[in-house]
Amino acid sequence: MKRRNFLVAAGAAFVAGCNRIAETDVGKSLLDAAEGWHKGAHRLLTDRTALAPEYPRSAISPYFRGNGSTDPQNGDYPRHAEEGFANWRLEVRGLVENPLSLSLENIRKLPQRSQVTRHDCVEGWSAIGEWTGPQLSLLLNAAGLLSQAKFIVFRCADNLNGQDYYESVDLVDAYHPQTIVAHSLNGEPLPIRNGAPLRMRIERQLGYKHAKYLTAIEAVASLDEIGKGQGGYWEDRAGYQWYAGI
Ligand SMILES: Nc1nc2c(c(=O)[nH]1)N[C@H]1C(S)=C(S)[C@@H](COP(=O)(O)O)O[C@H]1N2
Ligand SMILES: [Mo]
Question: For the domain bounded by 2-238, which CATH number is listed?
């Protein structure tokens, strides 16, 4: 009974919050995304907005291994690496009012979040690291998400086995407080191995969702026309689940 009351109260609080945010385009999109939950899935709702565990700095892994691309050699990436990423830009585009093109300095000057989290790769390894960067929600709000936007696509610089790496999430994960555009690992600029100069951290999702070598953040209405239509590199290639929530 107690648990049920809690869920009802939590649901009511969520709906009250929704009425306030519904006045904005972003809020409307979030509400659309959340619509399905109200059809009986309170448990799913509370689970999806919960925080992933955070750890003390003492738990940080001495070495954060790299996986997949660890030293991209295609396109402009080697030149950017040689320049110390001084001319790297991150675009925010697609279904937004004001497309953005941000330098690393722009990104470091925004309000920052640091979080010590555990990364879980489906291949059977985990590592704990401290990630720092602005919340994705900040960038999306600055760009002004249009109400047709339903998914956020992450474009990457690396081409792996002949395909450009990319990933995508829905707006619930995009606006999750622990979803950040990370420029630092353990207080240092990201090593190339771990996605320099920018990578996503989406802490409620498995490792392959955390796009490295980030070049653009794209708001879209559908994933059908992106890549092979399954929402990500591994989803297209090997049938990995698009929703890889943990
Ligand atoms: N651009 C890009 N992002 C990527 C990958 C990749 O190969 N290219 N590999 C994914 C996988 S499977 C995992 S487990 C993590 C690995 O991150 P790490 O190299 O920092 O350990 O990045 C993910 N993001
Ligand atoms: Mo992975």
Answer: 3.90.420.10
